[in-house]
Amino acid sequence: MRHGATLWGQENRFAGWGDSPLSEAGIVEAEVAANTLTKADLSFDVSYTSELLRARQTLDTLAKILPSSGSDIRIDWRLNERHYGSLQGETRAAMIEKHGNQQVVKWRRSYTALPPSLEQDDPRWREQLQRFSHLKPVDQPATESMAIAAERVAPVWHRRIVPDLKCGKQVLVVAHTSSIRGLARAIEGLNDKASENFRIATAVPMVYALDDDLSVVSKTDLKSGMAGGIRYWLNQLKPRGLGWV
């Protein structure tokens, strides 16, 4: 599940590794998602999330309604969102004005495009190093493409989640678009184009049923209520050629 809506999202800002909290709407989305998972009779033995506040707040909100989701929480920095480089914290409108719509669309939508890097003297880079001081600087990106983010996420699937699943555990992941894209790529064997086109709406759970070989038996989006359905379809239908949506 992707985290709920954020304050930076309301302001149409690039987030990446920036630590925007959930908005009030995002907290409500997470509560609705928890009720949806409860109605679907789903419970979890272990939950994974990223080190970013918006994902952890979403999981904390889930755990208040769906206690099993908070019973064994594992935080992994590799599930962080794709790093958007020097675009982080900037509004999409400002970046379109500075770089042009076509370039912003390429940075956002191309599987291999790299946004401009954060420079070492940038206050945002220094803040990141301080916030993630427990991580080696070499592990901290200054920018990432979708492809690089997916490579970062892959070991979480192969080395952590797969062993849990093979032990019969039910696993919940609360993360971000690009980190979930990386998991979907590993789970479904997506190629670059399919990975590039991957989308997931805020707080709409995506449920995989897997067989004993961890091949996909079914994949279901749990859209609950009108608001969840609208978010899902807006996310699926938003035009790819516009950098501000």
- Corresponding CATH architecture: 3-Layer(aba) Sandwich
Q: Helices and strands: which structural class?
A: mainly alpha
Q: What is the general shape?
A: globular
Superfamily (CATH H level) name:
Phosphoglycerate mutase-like
Helix content: 40-55%
Strand content: 5-15%
Average pLDDT number: 94
Count of the separate structural domains: 1
How would you summarize what this structure contains?
By secondary structure, this protein is mainly alpha-helical. It has helices spanning 7-10, 24-39, 53-65, 92-99, 101-109, 123-131, 146-166, 177-188, 192-196, 225-237; strands spanning 46-49, 73-75, 171-174, 206-210, 216-221.
SSE blueprint and pairings:
Blueprint: H1 7-10, H2 24-39, E1 46-49, H3 53-65, E2 73-75, H4 92-99, H5 101-109, H6 123-131, H7 146-166, E3 171-174, H8 177-188, H9 192-196, E4 206-210, E5 216-221, H10 225-237
Parallel strand pairs: 1-2, 1-3
Antiparallel strand pairs: 4-5
Q: How would you sum up this structure, described in words?
A:
Helices cover 45% and strands 9% of the residues. With 245 residues, it is mainly alpha-helical. The protein has a single domain (7-237), classed as Phosphoglycerate mutase-like (Rossmann fold, 3-Layer(aba) Sandwich). The strands form 2 sheets. Strands 2-1-3 form a 3-stranded parallel β-sheet. It is globular, with a radius of gyration of 17 Å.
